[in-house]
Amino acid sequence: MKTNSEHSMTNSSGQQERRGERGNALVYVLIAIVLFAALSFTLARNSDSGEAGALPEERAELYTSQLISYASQVKSIYDQMDFQGARIDQIDFTLPSDTANFDTGTKIFKIYHPEGGGLNIGTLDTEAIFDSGLTTPGDPKAGWYLGRFNNIEWTPTTGTDIVLSAYGIDPTICALINEKVTGNRTIPAITEPLKEVFVQKTYTFGAGTQNNFATGTNTDLTTQGGTPVCAECDNISSLCVQEGGIYGFYTVIADR
Known about the structure:
Strand content: 5-15%
Helix content: 25-40%
Number of strands: 6
Radius of gyration: 30 Å
Shape: globular
Structural class: alpha+beta
Largest sheet: 4 strands, antiparallel
Strand order of the largest sheet: 1-2-6-5
């Protein structure tokens, strides 16, 4: 039979062992946490740097959907204005930032005005932009451009058509757009500067002259005969193209 002293020594020894076990378990948990954190950090770095500067596919898919959705919205708003009697040569692209002219004139013809089309100005997420090729002084900034500044060769007449373009977008997004439009990711190259085909043009509306985002002359989008600007664009109303390392997605909103 154990004495009280022996019982006390046994209990003390057991408590020390249990405390030791708990201490060891805590050490193992801390080690596991540290290892998990290190692994997560390594995976994150590998994910970020696996393709230097490349936009991850899942993010590119998201932005692709956003761009196509905005283009569809612009087309829908124009169609609504056309249904209500605003013709292609009457559409006014005055921006809300043009405070001197935005609330003057026939507002129902103004695509951005609440009394007209009520279109929100499109923006590109910074992650969707690839602007390393925009280096020439005076180059338009990456972004959305909308105007009546281009004659698309395959449209019915030689009149200027209304074109929407997303200028300076990521090539991964560009390829995904074309996959949805044409079934493959090929990005056609055009033979003229992208900005001169889909961005720049000073055009006249009514009695005044408005500058469409940038100075310069416009180059028509020729698709047939001679040396076309973009043969692959023939009869394609929405496509992503590239020139000189700059990528742009165009959509013909209204043709004539």
